[in-house]
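Researcher: Good morning. I'm working through a list of sequences from a screen, and I'd like to move beyond sequence-only analysis. For each chain I'm collecting a predicted structure so we can compare shapes side by side. This is the next one on the list. No need for commentary yet; just the structure.
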Amino acid sequence: MPHRVRRPLLALAAAALFLLCLARPAAAHGFSSTVYAHVTADGDGPLRTELKLEYDLLVVSAADTGDDDSLFRAGTDAFEAGDPAAEAAALEAHRGTALAYVTRHLSVSAGQKACTPAPDGAFRMGTEEGVPYALLNLDWTCAEHGAGDHEVRGTLFPDSEGYVKGTKTIVTYDVGGHSGSAALDAGHPSFSISQSWTQRFWEFFRLGAEHLLTGTDHILFLLALIAGSRRPREVVLAATSFTLAHSVTFLLAALGLVHVPAGLVEPVIALSIAVVAGWHLWRIRGRGTGVAELRAPGEGRFALDRAGWTRLGVVFCFGLVHGLGFAGALGIEAAWSWTLLWSLLVFNVGIEAVQLGIIAVVFPLLLLLVRRSPRAAAWTTGGLSACVAAMGLIWFVQRVAGA
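Model: Good morning. C-alpha coordinates for this chain:
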Protein backbone atom coordinates (compact mmCIF):
# COMPACT_ATOMS: atom_id res chain seq x y z
CA MET A 1 0.00 0.00 0.00
CA PRO A 2 1.47 3.42 -0.97
CA HIS A 3 2.81 5.60 1.82
CA ARG A 4 0.40 8.40 0.88
CA VAL A 5 -2.52 6.02 1.47
CA ARG A 6 -1.13 4.24 4.51
CA ARG A 7 -0.80 7.41 6.59
CA PRO A 8 -4.47 8.56 6.51
CA LEU A 9 -5.62 4.95 6.82
CA LEU A 10 -3.57 4.46 9.98
CA ALA A 11 -4.73 7.82 11.33
CA LEU A 12 -8.37 6.88 10.75
CA ALA A 13 -7.92 3.51 12.45
CA ALA A 14 -6.11 5.13 15.37
CA ALA A 15 -8.92 7.67 15.81
CA ALA A 16 -11.55 4.94 15.85
CA LEU A 17 -9.56 2.83 18.34
CA PHE A 18 -9.01 5.86 20.57
CA LEU A 19 -12.73 6.57 20.71
CA LEU A 20 -13.54 2.96 21.52
CA CYS A 21 -10.89 2.84 24.24
CA LEU A 22 -12.57 5.81 25.90
CA ALA A 23 -15.83 3.92 26.05
CA ARG A 24 -16.88 1.29 28.56
CA PRO A 25 -18.83 -1.81 27.59
CA ALA A 26 -22.32 -1.02 26.34
CA ALA A 27 -23.75 -3.60 28.67
CA ALA A 28 -23.33 -1.02 31.44
CA HIS A 29 -26.64 0.48 30.25
CA GLY A 30 -28.45 -2.47 31.75
CA PHE A 31 -26.61 -2.50 35.09
CA SER A 32 -26.81 1.08 36.30
CA SER A 33 -29.10 2.67 38.85
CA THR A 34 -30.45 6.12 39.59
CA VAL A 35 -31.09 7.55 43.06
CA TYR A 36 -33.45 10.50 43.42
CA ALA A 37 -33.20 13.09 46.19
CA HIS A 38 -35.38 16.16 46.64
CA VAL A 39 -34.00 18.60 49.24
CA THR A 40 -36.13 21.26 50.91
CA ALA A 41 -36.06 23.41 54.06
CA ASP A 42 -38.77 25.25 55.96
CA GLY A 43 -37.34 28.39 57.53
CA ASP A 44 -34.91 27.54 60.33
CA GLY A 45 -36.23 23.98 60.59
CA PRO A 46 -34.30 20.88 59.58
CA LEU A 47 -33.23 20.17 56.02
CA ARG A 48 -35.39 17.42 54.51
CA THR A 49 -34.32 14.90 51.88
CA GLU A 50 -37.00 12.88 50.13
CA LEU A 51 -35.21 9.81 48.81
CA LYS A 52 -36.11 7.24 46.17
CA LEU A 53 -33.88 4.16 46.03
CA GLU A 54 -34.14 1.07 43.85
CA TYR A 55 -35.68 -1.49 46.18
CA ASP A 56 -33.89 -4.76 45.35
CA LEU A 57 -30.57 -2.94 45.18
CA LEU A 58 -31.15 -1.36 48.60
CA VAL A 59 -32.00 -4.77 50.05
CA VAL A 60 -28.89 -6.57 48.79
CA SER A 61 -26.53 -3.66 49.49
CA ALA A 62 -27.82 -3.02 53.02
CA ALA A 63 -27.96 -6.74 53.85
CA ASP A 64 -24.44 -7.33 52.56
CA THR A 65 -22.94 -4.29 54.31
CA GLY A 66 -24.81 -4.94 57.55
CA ASP A 67 -24.35 -8.73 57.44
CA ASP A 68 -28.12 -9.13 57.77
CA ASP A 69 -29.12 -12.37 56.01
CA SER A 70 -32.70 -12.19 57.23
CA LEU A 71 -33.18 -8.82 55.48
CA PHE A 72 -31.88 -10.34 52.28
CA ARG A 73 -34.24 -13.32 52.51
CA ALA A 74 -37.33 -11.33 53.49
CA GLY A 75 -36.65 -8.53 51.03
CA THR A 76 -35.92 -10.89 48.15
CA ASP A 77 -39.03 -12.98 48.80
CA ALA A 78 -41.20 -9.84 48.84
CA PHE A 79 -39.56 -8.55 45.65
CA GLU A 80 -40.07 -11.83 43.80
CA ALA A 81 -43.69 -11.92 44.95
CA GLY A 82 -44.20 -8.37 43.66
CA ASP A 83 -45.90 -7.37 46.91
CA PRO A 84 -45.29 -3.66 47.76
CA ALA A 85 -46.72 -4.03 51.26
CA ALA A 86 -44.40 -6.96 52.01
CA GLU A 87 -41.46 -5.05 50.53
CA ALA A 88 -42.05 -2.06 52.80
CA ALA A 89 -42.60 -4.39 55.76
CA ALA A 90 -39.27 -6.15 55.12
CA LEU A 91 -37.42 -2.83 55.25
CA GLU A 92 -39.29 -1.74 58.36
CA ALA A 93 -38.52 -5.02 60.11
CA HIS A 94 -34.82 -4.36 59.47
CA ARG A 95 -35.03 -0.57 59.75
CA GLY A 96 -31.72 -0.24 61.57
CA THR A 97 -29.76 -2.06 58.87
CA ALA A 98 -31.39 -0.15 56.02
CA LEU A 99 -31.04 3.27 57.68
CA ALA A 100 -27.41 2.60 58.61
CA TYR A 101 -26.61 1.85 54.98
CA VAL A 102 -28.40 4.91 53.62
CA THR A 103 -26.91 7.37 56.11
CA ARG A 104 -23.45 5.90 55.62
CA HIS A 105 -23.61 6.77 51.92
CA LEU A 106 -25.66 9.97 52.05
CA SER A 107 -24.69 12.95 54.18
CA VAL A 108 -25.43 16.64 54.61
CA SER A 109 -23.12 19.20 56.17
CA ALA A 110 -23.40 22.89 56.99
CA GLY A 111 -20.44 25.15 57.63
CA GLN A 112 -18.20 22.06 57.20
CA LYS A 113 -19.96 20.43 60.18
CA ALA A 114 -21.92 17.20 59.71
CA CYS A 115 -25.68 17.37 60.15
CA THR A 116 -27.53 14.70 62.12
CA PRO A 117 -30.08 12.58 60.20
CA ALA A 118 -33.41 11.37 61.60
CA PRO A 119 -36.02 9.38 59.64
CA ASP A 120 -39.46 10.97 59.30
CA GLY A 121 -42.04 8.23 58.87
CA ALA A 122 -41.74 4.65 57.69
CA PHE A 123 -40.36 3.20 54.49
CA ARG A 124 -42.89 3.36 51.65
CA MET A 125 -42.94 1.91 48.17
CA GLY A 126 -43.26 3.48 44.74
CA THR A 127 -42.12 2.79 41.18
CA GLU A 128 -39.87 4.45 38.63
CA GLU A 129 -40.13 3.19 35.03
CA GLY A 130 -41.89 0.10 36.33
CA VAL A 131 -39.12 -0.70 38.85
CA PRO A 132 -39.95 -0.89 42.60
CA TYR A 133 -38.38 1.98 44.55
CA ALA A 134 -38.18 2.44 48.32
CA LEU A 135 -39.20 5.91 49.54
CA LEU A 136 -37.68 7.44 52.66
CA ASN A 137 -37.74 10.91 54.22
CA LEU A 138 -34.76 12.05 56.30
CA ASP A 139 -34.61 15.26 58.34
CA TRP A 140 -31.14 16.72 58.96
CA THR A 141 -30.46 18.85 62.00
CA CYS A 142 -27.51 21.17 61.42
CA ALA A 143 -25.58 23.30 63.86
CA GLU A 144 -25.15 25.89 61.11
CA HIS A 145 -28.34 27.14 59.47
CA GLY A 146 -26.85 29.15 56.63
CA ALA A 147 -28.42 27.78 53.44
CA GLY A 148 -25.37 28.76 51.45
CA ASP A 149 -23.14 26.44 53.48
CA HIS A 150 -25.13 23.25 52.95
CA GLU A 151 -23.29 20.51 51.09
CA VAL A 152 -24.91 17.24 50.00
CA ARG A 153 -22.77 14.16 49.43
CA GLY A 154 -24.05 10.92 47.87
CA THR A 155 -22.18 7.68 47.27
CA LEU A 156 -25.07 5.20 47.33
CA PHE A 157 -24.59 1.88 45.53
CA PRO A 158 -20.92 2.37 44.55
CA ASP A 159 -19.22 0.26 41.88
CA SER A 160 -17.09 -1.38 44.59
CA GLU A 161 -20.13 -3.31 45.85
CA GLY A 162 -20.22 -5.16 42.55
CA TYR A 163 -23.99 -4.98 42.02
CA VAL A 164 -24.29 -2.04 39.59
CA LYS A 165 -22.01 0.31 37.68
CA GLY A 166 -22.14 4.06 37.41
CA THR A 167 -24.91 4.92 39.88
CA LYS A 168 -26.11 8.51 39.53
CA THR A 169 -27.85 10.52 42.22
CA ILE A 170 -30.11 13.18 40.73
CA VAL A 171 -30.76 15.94 43.27
CA THR A 172 -33.28 18.75 43.06
CA TYR A 173 -33.35 21.38 45.80
CA ASP A 174 -35.21 24.43 47.01
CA VAL A 175 -33.50 25.75 50.11
CA GLY A 176 -33.34 29.32 51.43
CA GLY A 177 -33.85 30.97 48.05
CA HIS A 178 -31.48 28.59 46.28
CA SER A 179 -33.09 26.19 43.83
CA GLY A 180 -31.84 23.98 41.07
CA SER A 181 -30.57 20.49 40.39
CA ALA A 182 -27.34 18.54 40.46
CA ALA A 183 -26.05 15.16 39.32
CA LEU A 184 -23.75 13.18 41.61
CA ASP A 185 -21.60 10.22 40.63
CA ALA A 186 -18.38 8.52 41.70
CA GLY A 187 -16.23 11.23 40.13
CA HIS A 188 -18.27 14.10 41.56
CA PRO A 189 -19.99 12.84 44.73
CA SER A 190 -20.94 16.17 46.34
CA PHE A 191 -22.21 19.67 45.62
CA SER A 192 -22.98 22.87 47.46
CA ILE A 193 -26.54 24.17 47.47
CA SER A 194 -25.13 27.67 46.96
CA GLN A 195 -23.39 26.68 43.72
CA SER A 196 -23.66 29.15 40.86
CA TRP A 197 -25.66 28.55 37.68
CA THR A 198 -22.39 28.09 35.78
CA GLN A 199 -21.40 25.27 38.11
CA ARG A 200 -24.79 23.61 37.64
CA PHE A 201 -24.44 24.05 33.87
CA TRP A 202 -21.01 22.44 33.87
CA GLU A 203 -22.15 19.47 35.97
CA PHE A 204 -24.88 18.42 33.55
CA PHE A 205 -22.80 19.31 30.48
CA ARG A 206 -20.05 17.05 31.81
CA LEU A 207 -22.56 14.32 32.60
CA GLY A 208 -23.91 14.42 29.04
CA ALA A 209 -20.42 14.35 27.53
CA GLU A 210 -19.36 11.46 29.75
CA HIS A 211 -22.53 9.53 28.99
CA LEU A 212 -21.81 9.57 25.26
CA LEU A 213 -18.12 8.77 25.71
CA THR A 214 -18.84 5.90 28.08
CA GLY A 215 -21.75 4.54 26.02
CA THR A 216 -20.06 2.31 23.47
CA ASP A 217 -23.33 1.65 21.66
CA HIS A 218 -23.97 5.35 20.97
CA ILE A 219 -20.39 5.85 19.75
CA LEU A 220 -20.62 2.87 17.41
CA PHE A 221 -23.90 4.20 16.01
CA LEU A 222 -22.15 7.50 15.30
CA LEU A 223 -19.18 5.75 13.68
CA ALA A 224 -21.60 3.80 11.48
CA LEU A 225 -23.16 7.11 10.39
CA ILE A 226 -19.74 8.53 9.55
CA ALA A 227 -18.61 5.43 7.66
CA GLY A 228 -21.77 5.43 5.53
CA SER A 229 -21.67 9.14 4.63
CA ARG A 230 -20.30 10.08 1.22
CA ARG A 231 -19.78 13.82 1.63
CA PRO A 232 -19.63 16.37 4.46
CA ARG A 233 -23.21 17.37 3.68
CA GLU A 234 -24.43 13.83 4.30
CA VAL A 235 -22.76 13.37 7.67
CA VAL A 236 -23.95 16.82 8.80
CA LEU A 237 -27.53 16.08 7.75
CA ALA A 238 -27.41 12.63 9.35
CA ALA A 239 -26.03 14.03 12.61
CA THR A 240 -28.61 16.84 12.57
CA SER A 241 -31.42 14.35 11.95
CA PHE A 242 -30.17 12.20 14.82
CA THR A 243 -29.90 15.24 17.09
CA LEU A 244 -33.39 16.52 16.31
CA ALA A 245 -34.90 13.08 16.82
CA HIS A 246 -33.33 12.26 20.15
CA SER A 247 -33.96 15.80 21.40
CA VAL A 248 -37.69 15.33 20.70
CA THR A 249 -38.02 12.10 22.69
CA PHE A 250 -35.66 13.38 25.37
CA LEU A 251 -37.93 16.40 25.91
CA LEU A 252 -41.14 14.35 25.75
CA ALA A 253 -39.76 11.96 28.36
CA ALA A 254 -38.76 14.91 30.55
CA LEU A 255 -42.34 16.17 30.39
CA GLY A 256 -43.66 12.72 31.28
CA LEU A 257 -45.52 12.42 27.95
CA VAL A 258 -43.63 9.36 26.72
CA HIS A 259 -42.68 6.25 28.63
CA VAL A 260 -41.08 3.20 27.00
CA PRO A 261 -39.56 0.44 29.16
CA ALA A 262 -35.77 0.15 29.07
CA GLY A 263 -36.26 -3.54 28.24
CA LEU A 264 -37.58 -2.43 24.85
CA VAL A 265 -35.41 0.65 24.27
CA GLU A 266 -32.02 -0.98 24.83
CA PRO A 267 -32.47 -3.89 22.34
CA VAL A 268 -33.73 -1.46 19.68
CA ILE A 269 -30.68 0.77 20.22
CA ALA A 270 -28.45 -2.27 19.65
CA LEU A 271 -30.45 -3.22 16.54
CA SER A 272 -30.15 0.34 15.19
CA ILE A 273 -26.37 0.05 15.30
CA ALA A 274 -26.46 -3.14 13.23
CA VAL A 275 -28.96 -1.73 10.72
CA VAL A 276 -27.11 1.55 10.06
CA ALA A 277 -23.77 -0.26 9.72
CA GLY A 278 -25.34 -2.99 7.59
CA TRP A 279 -26.85 -0.36 5.31
CA HIS A 280 -23.37 0.73 4.25
CA LEU A 281 -22.26 -2.89 3.73
CA TRP A 282 -25.29 -3.54 1.54
CA ARG A 283 -24.51 -0.44 -0.52
CA ILE A 284 -20.89 -1.53 -1.00
CA ARG A 285 -21.96 -5.06 -1.96
CA GLY A 286 -24.42 -3.72 -4.54
CA ARG A 287 -21.83 -1.47 -6.16
CA GLY A 288 -18.65 -3.50 -6.14
CA THR A 289 -16.01 -1.80 -4.05
CA GLY A 290 -18.28 1.18 -3.47
CA VAL A 291 -15.72 3.66 -4.86
CA ALA A 292 -18.18 5.56 -6.98
CA GLU A 293 -20.79 5.46 -4.25
CA LEU A 294 -18.48 7.07 -1.73
CA ARG A 295 -18.09 10.13 -3.94
CA ALA A 296 -21.29 10.06 -5.99
CA PRO A 297 -23.11 13.41 -6.20
CA GLY A 298 -26.70 13.41 -5.09
CA GLU A 299 -29.69 15.03 -6.74
CA GLY A 300 -32.56 17.16 -5.53
CA ARG A 301 -32.88 19.31 -2.42
CA PHE A 302 -29.82 19.13 -0.15
CA ALA A 303 -28.15 17.15 -2.99
CA LEU A 304 -29.46 13.86 -1.61
CA ASP A 305 -30.60 11.00 -3.82
CA ARG A 306 -33.38 8.57 -2.90
CA ALA A 307 -30.98 6.35 -0.94
CA GLY A 308 -29.72 9.40 0.97
CA TRP A 309 -33.24 10.50 1.94
CA THR A 310 -34.21 6.97 2.95
CA ARG A 311 -31.11 6.67 5.12
CA LEU A 312 -31.91 10.04 6.70
CA GLY A 313 -35.40 8.83 7.59
CA VAL A 314 -34.04 5.64 9.13
CA VAL A 315 -31.51 7.61 11.18
CA PHE A 316 -34.27 9.93 12.42
CA CYS A 317 -36.44 7.01 13.54
CA PHE A 318 -33.56 5.37 15.38
CA GLY A 319 -32.64 8.75 16.87
CA LEU A 320 -36.06 8.83 18.54
CA VAL A 321 -35.18 5.58 20.29
CA HIS A 322 -31.70 6.78 21.28
CA GLY A 323 -33.33 9.83 22.87
CA LEU A 324 -35.26 7.51 25.17
CA GLY A 325 -31.96 5.82 26.02
CA PHE A 326 -30.39 9.16 26.91
CA ALA A 327 -33.43 10.04 29.03
CA GLY A 328 -33.27 6.66 30.75
CA ALA A 329 -29.67 7.36 31.73
CA LEU A 330 -30.98 10.06 34.07
CA GLY A 331 -34.26 8.39 34.99
CA ILE A 332 -36.02 11.68 34.38
CA GLU A 333 -39.60 10.50 34.76
CA ALA A 334 -40.44 11.98 38.14
CA ALA A 335 -43.03 14.30 39.65
CA TRP A 336 -40.51 17.12 39.71
CA SER A 337 -39.23 16.78 36.13
CA TRP A 338 -40.08 20.41 35.35
CA THR A 339 -37.42 21.64 37.77
CA LEU A 340 -34.92 19.40 35.98
CA LEU A 341 -35.78 20.53 32.47
CA TRP A 342 -33.10 23.19 32.12
CA SER A 343 -30.41 20.84 33.43
CA LEU A 344 -31.59 18.06 31.13
CA LEU A 345 -31.26 20.35 28.12
CA VAL A 346 -27.71 21.12 29.21
CA PHE A 347 -27.11 17.36 29.49
CA ASN A 348 -28.23 17.13 25.87
CA VAL A 349 -25.83 19.91 24.88
CA GLY A 350 -22.97 17.90 26.41
CA ILE A 351 -23.98 14.91 24.29
CA GLU A 352 -24.01 17.04 21.14
CA ALA A 353 -20.64 18.63 21.86
CA VAL A 354 -18.95 15.22 22.03
CA GLN A 355 -20.84 13.99 18.98
CA LEU A 356 -19.66 16.96 16.91
CA GLY A 357 -16.13 16.50 18.23
CA ILE A 358 -16.06 12.87 17.07
CA ILE A 359 -17.32 13.88 13.61
CA ALA A 360 -14.76 16.68 13.40
CA VAL A 361 -11.93 14.21 14.14
CA VAL A 362 -12.97 11.13 12.17
CA PHE A 363 -14.73 12.38 9.03
CA PRO A 364 -11.90 14.60 7.70
CA LEU A 365 -9.59 11.57 7.95
CA LEU A 366 -12.08 9.55 5.92
CA LEU A 367 -12.33 12.30 3.30
CA LEU A 368 -8.53 12.44 3.04
CA LEU A 369 -8.42 8.70 2.50
CA VAL A 370 -11.17 8.89 -0.15
CA ARG A 371 -9.25 11.51 -2.10
CA ARG A 372 -6.01 9.53 -2.00
CA SER A 373 -7.39 6.02 -2.51
CA PRO A 374 -11.15 5.53 -2.89
CA ARG A 375 -10.71 1.75 -2.98
CA ALA A 376 -8.82 1.74 0.32
CA ALA A 377 -11.52 4.00 1.79
CA ALA A 378 -14.22 1.55 0.73
CA TRP A 379 -12.37 -1.36 2.34
CA THR A 380 -11.75 0.65 5.51
CA THR A 381 -15.35 1.81 5.94
CA GLY A 382 -16.59 -1.65 4.98
CA GLY A 383 -14.41 -3.33 7.57
CA LEU A 384 -15.44 -0.82 10.24
CA SER A 385 -19.12 -1.26 9.37
CA ALA A 386 -18.83 -5.05 9.50
CA CYS A 387 -17.35 -4.92 13.01
CA VAL A 388 -19.97 -2.42 14.16
CA ALA A 389 -22.83 -4.47 12.68
CA ALA A 390 -21.53 -7.63 14.38
CA MET A 391 -21.32 -5.90 17.77
CA GLY A 392 -24.81 -4.46 17.34
CA LEU A 393 -26.26 -7.91 16.63
CA ILE A 394 -24.44 -9.44 19.60
CA TRP A 395 -25.75 -6.72 21.94
CA PHE A 396 -29.25 -7.11 20.48
CA VAL A 397 -29.30 -10.82 21.28
CA GLN A 398 -27.83 -10.23 24.75
CA ARG A 399 -30.35 -7.52 25.61
CA VAL A 400 -33.34 -9.47 24.31
CA ALA A 401 -32.16 -12.45 26.36
CA GLY A 402 -31.65 -10.18 29.38
CA ALA A 403 -27.94 -11.05 29.62
